[in-house]
Amino acid sequence: MWNEVIDLQFSAMKYFDMLVAQLKFETVDQILALMLDHLSTLIYSYLPTNLIEQKCKQVFSAILDIFRDDSLDEYLMIPLVDNLFAFLADFAHI
After folding, report:
1. Which of 16, 30, 40, 59 is most buried, judged by most C-beta within 10 A?
2. Chain center to CA of 83
3. How buried is 61 (Cβ within 10 angstroms: 0-12 exposed, 13-18 middle, 19+ buried)?
4. Predicted pLDDT of residue 80
């Protein structure tokens, strides 16, 4: 599906929404890292610039929600922490 977004055959916004919704369900660290990388690329390269702050906040909040889950596997924390700062969009996040 990512290739379809790159080829402009699938909506970047729809792909963004699908990835954000799927984040909390992902159980494989490598796939989670890839999803976060795709989200960052979508925000900064494919979505309208007036949506960057809003979409960064949305992903940042989704990541924080995942961290709040007591059943989060330790190995899933690595890609979340590694990518967290790519989505800082608000001074309150610091």
Report:
1. 59
2. 8
3. middle
4. 92
What is the average pLDDT across 63-82?
Answer: 90
Residues 6, 78: Cα–Cα separation, whole Å: 27
**Between residues 88 and 33, which one has the greater pLDDT?**
33
Rg (CA), the chain: 13
Is 47:13 a contact under the CB 8 Å cutoff? yes
| Contact residues for 2 (Cβ-Cβ < 8 A; gap 6+) | 15, 38
